Amino acid sequence: MSATPLSSALLTRPPAAAAPATARPRRTRVLALPETRWAAAATAAFLAALAVRLLDGPDWASGPLYAAAYLAGGWEPALAGLRALRGRTLDVDLLMVVAALGAAAIGQVPDGALLIVIFATSGALEALATARTADSVRGLLDLAPATACRLAPDGREETVPTAGLAVGDTVLVRPGERIGADGRVLDGSSEVDQATITGEPLPAARSVGDEVYAGTLNGAGALRIRVERDAADSVIARIVAMVQEASETKAPTQLFVEKVEQRYAAGLVVATLLLFAVPLALGAELTATLLRAMTFMIVASPCAVVLATMPPLLCAIANAGRHGVLVKSAVVMERLGQVDAVALDKTGTLTEGTPRVVELRPLGVTGDELLALAAAAEHPSEHPLARAVVAAARERGLVPPGATDFTPTPGVGVRAVVAGAVVAVGAPGPYRALPAVTELEEDGRTAVLVLRDGEPVGVLGLADRPREQAAAAVRGLTALTGRPPVLLTGDNRRAAEHLAREVGLTDVRGGLLPQDKVAAVRELADRGRRVLMVGDGVNDAPALAAAHSGVALGRAGSDLALETADAVVVRDELTAVGAVVALSRRARRLVVQNLVIAGAFITALVLWDLAGTLPLPLGVAGHEGSTVIVGLNGLRLLRERAWLRALRQKAPNGGAGNHEEC
Asked: How far, in Å, CA of 336 to CA of 344, rounded?
């Protein structure tokens, strides 16, 4: 039976029409679908006709009721089949209707009506399952509020549609309200329930500088938020759009099944005609021969086979989308499960992408005194290393003394007067031979020397810290592929090797240009590997394109990397990469299960019909039952449990391996 395309059921309206903040995610009602209404009408007419016959009622009373069952349940598949026939394709729906009419022609009116009713009910269940799949994604947009409180430059509050918010606008979100746009907190602190986006069971603390998402629920504090994405580009809107786009593609397995289906359907018609004509020519009885041939056509129809492939893949796409992984097509979802080697970028992928103070080497002062002096001198600077020093002091609760006569020297460092002393912070220069400097640089750190009145008082070790989940992600990907990922980076080899030791990598390739990364990916492919490349920058885009599958980190990823990648991890959660690979593999296993189930039912029913006498109602029940089983089997991947299971599969040990903080 032809399933309702998910793409036609997914939401196509823009976020502007989102439901009010108090709305709950909508769930399609059973009778809201025309397929279920027609199936219900056909079932009611059939049961009424059956009751009349069981009570020995006249044929003029049961006949119109049976006719109503045929019409209500059969007109839509008949029309679809005729349209397909006009396009020179043979639809299995038409074969079912022909079989039902054939049963009526030889006096088996109840059996034909039963076939129509079961066929219509199966179609209604498929339509409902497809609608519920769309609901799971569409519900995200329904959570976004329709309006927001925008703050004008003069402080006035104005209520505007969320679709009218522009990048740079400031909105006020009061306690208990839903956030209307993706943005960053300018003022205030609160706990935000982000379960609709991140799946986190507990509200996340959000304060100045933190990112928030449209559709999430604010807690007890008021927040002023600067809008950073248009409504159409919000995380929720991107999830819906990309899942819809993915649903319109077909995986190679599905294309193969559809190609075989046409030949199979034509062969089925020929076999049915032979099964009817040959015994009849040999003197068999007309009614029994026709009934056997029609039963054969019903049970041999590939309805369940056709439905075996796409539901698991589309459900996996929808589930991954709910957890912030946007898979661009069903082809990608199928290919992700095939990868057996992984290549990882370093900066911004395995690491946070911003330098941090990770070690303090004081000389004659305490660690806090060293950090306070450096932060005081660096405070006026906008250099990334300066910001890292100031941030480290704040994290320790230090209040640096005031500085005067600030003087920056590009490429060297800064100088300022702090508490009456001249403090210089910058490159080691002539002090590079200091043991603290040498040790830090050998460990892959950036050494920053602090001088007070010309005398060294300490060295700061700065590095780009690994992400919190980096080690767990590496372990999970190693478990999935059977070998550790390869680290491909343009950074120097010493820094790359230091990171590799922290997160558990052994194959390190540093100092690579973009073309070198492509060469490394192709080298792995030449060895027969299906390579998954994970990156975020412009320099990673060529390798993402060259790999079997490419995954980009979306929060800080370049536009080119996001466009080139096959999938995007919206929240930069590295553990989600392994999870989506595991989910893809499970979807592929369910496709195989479905094909085995469908094939087993068809084989058993066909053999029964050919070797014995298979009652038509039992054949119909077995055929349509297999179709429903296959459809529901694929829908298992929509459950939250499927994502949690994928996370557990890929990271059995959990945790992360961070370096000691300063």
From this structure: 15
Sign of the C-alpha dihedral computed for residues 267, 273, 275 and 278 taken in this order: negative
Q: Which of 253, 310, 252 is nearest to 630 (CA)?
A: 310
3-state secondary structure 258-297: HHHHHHHHHHHHHHHHHHHHHHHHCCCCHHHHHHHHHHHH
- Whether residue 345 contacts residue 261, with contact meaning beta carbons closer than 8 Å, is answered with no
Please give the structure tokens belonging to residue 212. 């928030």
Q: What pLDDT score was predicted for residue 202?
A: 54
Calpha distance 635→656 (Å, rounded):
33
Expressed in angstroms, the distance from the first to the final Cα of the chain is 63
Residue 424 host element (H or E):
strand 421-426
Facing residues of 458 across strands?
A: 362, 450
Question: Could you tell me the two tokens for 496?
Answer: 């790359």
User: Does the structure show a pLDDT above 50 at 3?
Assistant: no
Lowest mean pLDDT among 108-122, 272-286, 377-391: 108-122
Pick the catalytic residue: 182, 345, 443, 464?
345
Contact of 9 with 133, CB cutoff 8 Å = yes
| Cα–Cα distance, 302 to 10 (Å, whole number) | 26
What span, in angstroms and rounded, lies between the C-alpha atoms of 569 and 558? 13
Scan for tokens 């927040």, then name that residue: 223
Predicted local confidence at residue 21, as pLDDT: 36
d(CA 461, CA 370): 12
**What's the mean pLDDT in 543-560?**
79
Max mean pLDDT among 92-96, 309-313, 476-480 falls in 476-480
DSSP-assigned states of every residue in 429-486: GGGTTSHHHHHHHHTTPEEEEEEETTEEEEEEEEEEEEPTTHHHHHHHHHHHHSSPPE
User: Which has the closest alpha carbon to 11: 126, 160, 133?
Assistant: 133
**Selected residue with higher pLDDT from 182 and 269:** 182
CA–CA separation, 552 and 575 (whole Å): 13
User: Is 56 marked active-site?
Assistant: no
Lowest mean pLDDT among 264-268, 279-283, 414-418, 463-467: 264-268
Nearest CA to 47 out of 83, 72, 78, 29 is that of 72
pLDDT average, residue stretch 447-458: 91
CB 628 within 8 A of CB 125: yes
C-alpha–C-alpha distance, residues 537 and 535, integer Å: 6
Query: Do 606 and 296 form a contact (C-beta atoms < 8 A)?
Result: yes
The order of strands in the sheet holding 446-452 is: 351-362, 455-466, 446-452, 421-426, 413-418, 403-409
Average pLDDT of span 346-371: 87
pLDDT 10s digits, 320-343: 888 888 888 778 888 898 999 999
Any idea which residue has 């903040």 for tokens?
Answer: 21
- Strand, coil or helix: 2: coil
